[in-house]
From TrEMBL:
<protein>
    <submittedName>
        <fullName>Uncharacterized protein</fullName>
    </submittedName>
</protein>
Length: 193
């Protein structure tokens, strides 16, 4: 019998920064912890709550999106959110290698459309959607309650109900912990069947 296993955790890139391969499983909403100065080649490090130690280093086009949406002062970005995704059409050295792009942003009131450079001398419209506000992150007490509900679930239906609730809750920094507990309990229930 095959056990429940989230394979997305096994394909994470071994790198000091975010890359397109980090989004092969789909887009992710991330929260900006802080922004620091980078190198000449990659001048901006956007540190994210969800990827500690692996900053998002946006390309020039995505930096233009950030400045157009939020302004030039990076200190104001802390606490704001982005939806990042892998755009497989991004080219490097003549080959489509994929790249990290922004599809939605918090703190904008309407769709943002910019003309961004696609290839030398050619521009195309690029759109970013507003990212809806999140409810406040759950408290440690709520984490304990959810953990207890997961541990006390006796059927897959009960567990699926909890899982559906988790998908609509702002789990903040507790997301991975609760997802792991949910997956572990699912395996236990399936093992009893």
């Amino acid at each position: 019998m095959t056990e429940s296993l989230d394979l997305s955790t096994t394909i994470a890139a071994n790198s000091d920064q975010l890359g397109a391969e980090d989004f092969l499983a789909g887009p992710r909403v991330v929260t900006i912890d802080r922004v620091t100065k980078g190198t000449a080649d990659q001048p901006v490090n956007i540190h994210l709550t969800e990827f500690p130690g692996r900053p998002f280093r946006p390309c020039k086009s995505m930096r233009r999106v950030l400045v157009a949406a939020w302004g030039k002062e990076a200190a104001t970005y802390t606490g704001r959110r982005l939806m990042l995704f892998n755009d497989p059409s991004v080219r490097f050295g003549g080959s489509a290698v994929g790249g990290v792009r922004i599809s939605a942003m918090s703190d904008i009131s309407s769709r943002l459309t910019l003309a961004l450079t696609v290839t030398r001398g050619k521009k195309a419209p690029y759109q970013v959607e507003p990212l809806p506000d999140l409810p406040p992150a759950i408290t440690p007490e709520t984490v304990d309650e959810i953990q207890e509900r997961i541990n006390n679930a006796t059927t897959l239906d009960q567990l699926k109900t909890i899982g559906a609730e988790l998908k609509t809750t702002n789990l903040g920094v507790h997301r991975e912990q609760l997802q792991a507990a949910w997956s572990r309990r699912k395996g236990e229930i399936e093992g009893q069947a």
